Amino acid sequence: MSDPFDVGDRLKKLRLSAGLSQRQLAQYAGVPHGQISMIETNRSSPSVASLRKILGGMGMSMGEFFEPETHAPGQVFFGPEALSDLTSQLGAEASKLTLKQVGNAKDHGLQILREHYAPGADTGETMLSHPANEGGIVLSGELEVTVGPQTQTLRAGDSYLFDSRQPHRFRNISDKPAEVVSACTPPYL
């Protein structure tokens, strides 16, 4: 059995290798300095949105953060076991949301995700916003999607497509899991 992934230690090592202080990274990422310290000392587990914002301050994706080794160049097909898990290491609350990526999104300029939202899962109170376009299809369950001032509960077969610069959020407010397949270009996570 492998050692558990240490989010705080990994963040600290990457920050130091980039030659950044906690304050500099916080400034580049637009987050409070204390948040970096709390994560690096494992006193706080970041939400998906928070970690993505912090990694953005170093020009790094979540895929690179969790799986620095890329898939074989030219790899075309991926079984379920070959998907890169971008979220399971973020702690108990974040584990309600699982994002698994197909291949190396950065190399292809396209991120394809299989998303699982347990009941109560939420991308976070801080709305996501990034320069991209994204869309997805709900395969099962229900998912509340907020894009700008619009909020709608999507059910199996429903889909969404929007400019990701608009603040957005995904939540499962039902008592059953929701499964989604989504795509984002350019890659965000």
Automatic annotation (TrEMBL):
SMART domains: HTH_XRE
Origin species: Shimia sagamensis
Record carries keyword rRNA-binding: no
Coiled-coil spans in chain: none
Alphabetized Pfam families for the sequence: Cupin_2 (PF07883), HTH_3 (PF01381)
Keywords: DNA-binding
Domain HTH cro/C1-type: from-to ranges: 11-65
Keyword Aminoacyl-tRNA synthetase (UniProt): no
InterPro entries reported in the protein's UniProt record: Cro/C1-type_HTH, Cupin_2, Lambda_DNA-bd_dom_sf, RmlC-like_jellyroll, RmlC_Cupin_sf, TransReg_Diox_bact_type
Protein name per Swiss-Prot or TrEMBL: Transcriptional regulator, XRE family with cupin sensor
